[in-house]
Hints:
The chain is an alpha/beta fold. It contains 11 helices and 12 strands.
Amino acid sequence: MREFFTVDQRRLSFLDFGGPGLPVLAFHGHYNEASVFAPLAEALAPRWRVIALDQRGHGESDRAQSYHRADYVADIAAFHHHLGLGPVAVLGHSLGGVNAYQYAARHAGRVTALVVEDVGAVVDADWSLAARLPRRARSRQELVAAIGPTAPYLECSFRRFDDGWGFSFDIAHTVLSHKALTGDHWSDWESVTCPTLLVRGTDSVVLAQDHAREMVARRAGQAQLVELPAGHVVQRDAPDEFAAAVDTFLSQPPAA
């Protein structure tokens, strides 16, 4: 079910996939939106209830004036508060993964467990894809053809407008968000205190194996690494394996 709430006169949208399970807040990456988590939500039900935010500038949420790190984290805090939930598990992919671990670091008492999908503690964001995307296409088929092999990873964000087909994100805003994501975030990663699962695609061009292992080493005893046969979007390339890894991790009893 899609719902909305307002933060600083901006409307934010989210999808509550429902069910009786324990809540998991989910945060997508660039070029995506909350609906990208539909297959994962189905796979995790009924044990887990996925609630996914259309982050600022994405999906049905309003565009924003800035896309800095603190902005995204503040949106998550407002989202969590709006839901009226106590401490919960959070999960994020790429952009959403950094947002998730920064939220966990800065609001430690609000997060019980953290899942980070294929993003590092040091990010050198690549917005070359944004520069290649067409602003509009005459048809969905033309949009798919213009994007090429990457199209299946963006399809949840396809939209039909009066002047043709495009995306549910603004391309120029996406570049701004990429630039703001770039940086050294080790201090936040190392400040997370809850149990953490880092999932890496073995063919990822975003998260190198050595960096992923260093991330886990710096959180000795608190973080674990799972590598799955996938690229950067692990949940799409290896959906069953990803869902199983997340379910197994979230189902672990708390450490004594």
